[in-house]
Amino acid sequence: MRIVGSFRFLAALAGMLLVANVASPAIAAPSAPTNVSVLSTTQDGAATSAGTASVTWTQALGAATYSVTATANGQTSQSGSVAVCAGGSCSSSLAGLTGGITYSVVVTSIAADGSETPSAAPNATIIAETVPFTPGSLTLSLSSGQITLGWTAPSNGGSAIIKYVISDGGSFSVDVSSASVAYSSSSFTAGQNYTFSIVAVNSLGEAASDDFDAITFATAPTAPAAPTATVEGSSIPVNWLAPATNGSAITSYSVFLINSSGTDVGTPAVPSPATSTSLTLSNVASGTYTLKVTATNAQGTSARSIASTSKIISSGASDNTPTFSPADLASMDIGTNVILKASAPSGGAVTITVSASPAGACTYSAGKVFAVSAGTCNVAAAAAATASFAAGTGSKTITVKAAQSITFSPVASQALPGPIAVSAGSSSGLSVRFTVIGSCSISGSVVSFSAIGSCSVTAAQPGNVAYSPAQSITHTFQIASTSSAVGPGSSGSVGPGSSGSIGGSNPTAPGSGGDPVTGTPSTSAGAKVNAGSFKGYIALYAKGHKGKRFSAKVGKDWVIVPALKSDFVRIVEYTGVGYKIAVRVYIDRKLLSTIPILTK
Fold first, then answer.
1. What pTM, to 2 d.p., does this model score?
2. What is the DSSP string of 450-508?
3. Are residues 300 and 235 in the same domain?
4. Is there a domain that residue 12 lies in?
């Protein structure tokens, strides 16, 4: 019994193993979903990221379930809800879609074994619909009493924008065409603050709003009341009251002088400062006048005021223009001061005021103008009207400049034929100009000699817009013949062996071109020689010796003129100051006079 039972158990086990080793039949992949369509189901007022849609398709053969996916560039993929199938048709819902974005929708069949088949291309698409996005790049401006609001059109959320709505959170609200990106209006209350907001509207509702910057509405000022005016000689003082500003501070006033024909006289006058509520019109011609005033702010100019009462200027008012003393004061050096006065024909008081450009270039105190720094000093004088004289004004412009000086060293005596170059400098760095007078001429800085005599060189610097003219310096030097020698140690002396002269301490011996030291020359009545010293020079004089040979031993040096050309001759040689020198003068090689000199 036991053997039989065991056999039966083993036979049954073998049968089970045989069944287990037989392969299961393969399951085919599901077919692709067909007739896929997508329809927006977004509810009114849905936010821009809350769009919804319904996806439908025909049930696929072999599909146990489905997946639905919506994708778009730059967007997070959205998955549909669990598919619901009935009667051969299936559906799923999509949510979280961004308005205005085009999504591509794919439905995938999934078999029981997990195999998948997506819906065939082209994929179904949908433009998600929501309320519009908020308008961007908000701008606001106020000009000429008109507020202008600007914006850029936003994404419409997948449904065309119908309009924009602008409001101030109070009583003001206006619909603006969807084709517009700006709105202007002047229908506001001057001086009141406004904060405007804007929303875009489409078929699903309004976008989130955004606020413009706050603004105070303003217009041109109200016209001033009629001004008051009086007459003082040929002047008309005018006063008026400040009108309502209408939300923007007044920046200036203008006063109009109107003749008896109703015509404006000249240009309107502006007070100083421009926001002052009074001014005086001066030197008004005889006649009958009225006056009107306008006020101006950033938004424009008011209408003219009502006219003042008529004012009459008689014909007897004389000119009362002040004059300045000194009259020729046109420039000043920095650091200097000048007494400046003004007087008027009426004999009345004259008020002097000074302004500077740049500020602080000059000041005026106790009747003096003080030059402080480089710039322009504008001086104004005003004389009041009297019974016989009109009010008068005068002005003067003074240029404040820096002082400068010239450095120009003396020029030593020179010998023909020249030329020499001179040089000088100025403390300003401006170039120095030279002029000459005497037996010379100049080109640039090169002095040429024309004859024996003297030459005066003047160095000058005329200044410019920043510097006053410098004090000129003149130096005079003597021009001698080529045979003349300069005194001891002087630069430019003619040395030994030079043509026509004997230099140094070795004069040429008698008979070989030099001069003997003995003998008495023949002289005519009144003929004489002399010598003197000034400023380091020795001057030699000869009178009545025309045509004769003149020679002089100055210290150790010789001065020789082979033939004097006139009855009176003056020869100047530089020696320096503080020398004791014996000057021996010869005529025709014969000693005529010995003159001791201390140079000075």
1. 0.45
2. -SSEEEEEEEE----SSBPPPPPEEEEEEEE-TT----TT-TT---TT-TT---TT-PP
3. yes
4. no
